[in-house]
Amino acid sequence: MNIENTKAQMRKGVLEYCILSILKGEDKYASEILGSLKDAKMLVVEGTIYPLLTRLKNAGLLNYRWEESTSGPPRKYYALTETGKVFLKELNITWDELRSAVNLVTNTKNK
Prior knowledge:
This protein is an alpha+beta fold. The chain is 61% helix and 17% strand. It has a 3-stranded antiparallel β-sheet. The mean pLDDT is 91.
């Protein structure tokens, strides 16, 4: 079994939650979202994030607007919808429960 594959699957499992969390504070365009994920060592590539943003938008959790850029073409800024905000609150609860359960099973504590 390859540890890198397992680590990648674990990251993919929380990617939607991370994207919604990144957008909680302010609207961002895809490159900013990608940068936040990379800063957090999520190791995501553009080919992964764009279909995911589209899926979240189609699910009614995100919307977007186009905004002119002084340094190139217009940028698509993503934002949480009201449904997305409620969904994120539910995911926060679920994440806390899951983290606690995993910590119990693995005998680790939050750091």
